[in-house]
Specification:
Layout: H1 2-11, H2 28-37, E1 61-65, H3 72-85, E2 89-93, E3 99-101, E4 112-114, E5 120-123, E6 129-133, H4 137-152, E7 168-170, E8 174-179, E9 193-196, H5 208-222, E10 225-230, H6 240-246, E11 252-256, H7 268-278, H8 295-308, H9 310-316, H10 331-336, E12 348-354, E13 362-368, E14 373-379, H11 384-393, H12 403-416, E15 418-425, H13 430-440, E16 445-447, H14 453-469, H15 478-486, E17 487-491, E18 505-509, H16 517-531
Length: 546
């Protein structure tokens, strides 16, 4: 609907700076986003007494990913104005000599729009209900602080005469509210439009995934839509932004300009090339007419951040998807090393075991002599609907790892493979580990305390080196993949005799608390395989006696 873009440029104004109060003219990237967001389906039918609302459009959600200060917040504010009092809904197909006149909608600006024959027409929501949503109050304030002067300094004062500090009343009982992670009192109410900002910070762990899903359900019930904006996210955190970007859904519009991967943000010359790519030329001050972006200023801020946190600088200013500095493994590197293959019976392997009781996961991994890791068994606490289904079949019980299943799986592994070494993190599984040592020999089954820097740091070092050098492969098991991508590194200190010159690390959970047991079992399995006996010296599989 071209009328949506024209309406914004005629009614919204620049909210701050030297051009404060001047018409808000869309940059190309802003216009491109809105063109797609308000793209009407060619087969949309107009039923005056029962408009079809969101299904009239090609996309039910839009996702705009852009670097800091590129113009996302003013765009959000302008879109809120449109969804609040402008022609944001499909109102049929234009006939000959049809048009839109502001005077018919309570605005005295005198603007008129002449439709082309067959062009989609626009109309306003009868009762617009908007929730400005972000993880932090600072982000909602950034949008709100752009929104208020955009209304107060331009013709929209005819339609929205008062803008409050906490919320804004709209015509016909509508309103604009804010929702954050710490202020969710209005979550669950009816809404027609949800601008969701800093989506790269929304995760299951900070409860913002629930916020997103609740709003999407509420929008579906009202025929409304959501507009999503964010910086590039940390792929190790599994944010809502990443989920929406990677979703197979065809009715989510995604606009994400990523620079070539062969350019290094740490290199000053290449960093400048990246900045010129992700900050479009019409947003920059040297453009005619001049934009608002001072690329030299952005370069200075980015260079400062590179010295402190390269990964964050890449995400904030370079629009690049890179894991945070604390992430153990680049998710893309891990995924690229997945080459599932069948491991034949009688193969010599090492095994790694990390156990839990009820909250974390229990994982048993195997590893061949050439470093190929695969899952032998995993036991993960169900969540969401899976947990409800489990509780329905186990009333009054608490989910716990089945110790008998774990024991049977270990027994079957020793019966199928020639196990040369088996490293176990013994916490809460001391009895079973002791039994395995007695049965298979304590020179095969070994205890390795993963909380011991002296014992576990060399294991982590070998594991990290293998992954970073790409010298090994794995089965791509989804449980282990999730745990590997959640794992973070914690630097530790070893005595001089133990330190080989490399920085020693342990694998630890990140601040989001996601499980990492699969990554620990994977590292232990690799260590076992790389340090086990010569292949010809490893005993044959154990006979399984029932």
């Amino acid at each position: 609907m071209w009328i949506a873009l024209d309406w914004i440029e005629r009614h919204c104004v620049v909210p701050d700076g030297f051009r404060r109060g001047a018409p808000f003219l869309l940059y190309r990237m802003q216009g491109e986003y809105l063109q797609h967001f308000y793209l009407v389906r060619g087969d949309a039918r107009w039923i005056p007494e029962r408009p079809i609302l969101a299904p009239a459009f090609v996309y039910r959600r839009g996702l705009l990913v852009g670097p800091q200060k590129v113009g996302k917040n003013p765009l959000i504010a302008a879109q809120i104005c449109l969804e609040g009092v402008g022609p944001a809904l499909f109102a049929g197909w234009a006939g000959r000599d049809e048009g839109y006149s502001c005077r018919d909608h309570g605005c005295r600006c005198g603007w008129e729009y002449a439709y082309e024959l067959g062009e989609p027409k626009g109309m306003a929501w009868p009762t617009p209900l908007v929730q400005i949503t972000a993880f932090s109050e600072d982000s909602t304030e950034n949008t709100y602080d752009a929104l208020r002067p955009m209304i107060e300094l331009g013709p929209l004062t005819d339609l929205i005469p008062h803008t409050g500090e906490e919320f804004i009343r709209l015509p016909h009982g509508g309103r604009i509210d804010t929702v954050t992670s710490s202020n969710q009192s209005r979550l669950g109410q009816r809404i027609t439009f949800a601008p969701q900002d800093e989506l790269g910070l929304w995760t299951r762990q900070n409860k913002m995934e629930k916020v997103a899903d609740t709003q999407y359900r509420n929008l579906a019930g009202m025929g409304g839509r959501a507009s999503l904006t964010t910086n590039a996210w940390d792929p190790a955190e599994r944010s809502v932004a990443q989920r929406e970007f990677e979703s197979a859904a065809a009715d989510i519009y995604r606009q994400f300009l990523q620079p070539p991967k062969n350019l290094s943000f740490a290199n000053k010359v290449e960093r400048r090339k990246i900045l010129k790519l992700v900050y479009p030329d019409d947003t920059r001050r040297e453009h005619t007419p001049p934009g608002h972006v001072d690329l030299d200023g952005i370069e200075s801020e980015a260079a400062d951040l590179v010295e402190k946190d390269l990964a964050q600088a890449q995400r904030f200013y370079g629009n690049q998807l890179v894991p945070g500095a604390g992430a153990a493994v680049d998710p893309e590197v891990w995924d690229a090393q997945a080459f599932p293959r069948e491991i034949e019976a009688g193969t010599a392997i090492g095994m790694g075991f990390d156990g839990s009781i009820s909250q974390d996961a229990t994982v048993l991994r195997g590893c061949t002599a050439d470093g190929y890791r695969f899952t032998i068994g995993s036991w993960v606490r169900p969540v969401g609907s899976a947990m409800l289904a489990w509780q329905a079949t186990h009333p009054g019980q608490e989910w716990r790892v089945s110790r008998s299943e774990v024991r049977d799986t270990v027994t079957a592994a020793f019966a199928r493979y020639r196990v040369g070494k088996f490293y176990c993190d013994p916490w809460k599984w001391e009895t079973e580990v002791g039994d395995w040592q007695q049965l298979y020999g304590d020179e095969i089954v070994l205890v390795l305390d993963t909380n011991s820097a002296r014992r576990f740091a060399p294991v982590v070092s070998r594991w990290l080196t293998a992954i970073r050098e790409g010298s090994t492969r794995h089965d791509g098991d989804p449980v282990v993949a999730e745990h590997v991508k959640a794992a973070h590194l914690r630097k530790v200190h070893l005595s001089g005799d133990e330190n080989d010159g490399r920085t020693p690390y342990l694998l630890v959970k990140g601040g989001d608390g996601r499980k990492i047991d699969g990554s620990i079992a994977d590292a232990l399995a690799l260590e076992a395989a790389m340090t086990m006996l010569e292949l010809e010296s490893i005993a044959e599989p154990w006979v399984l006696v029932r």
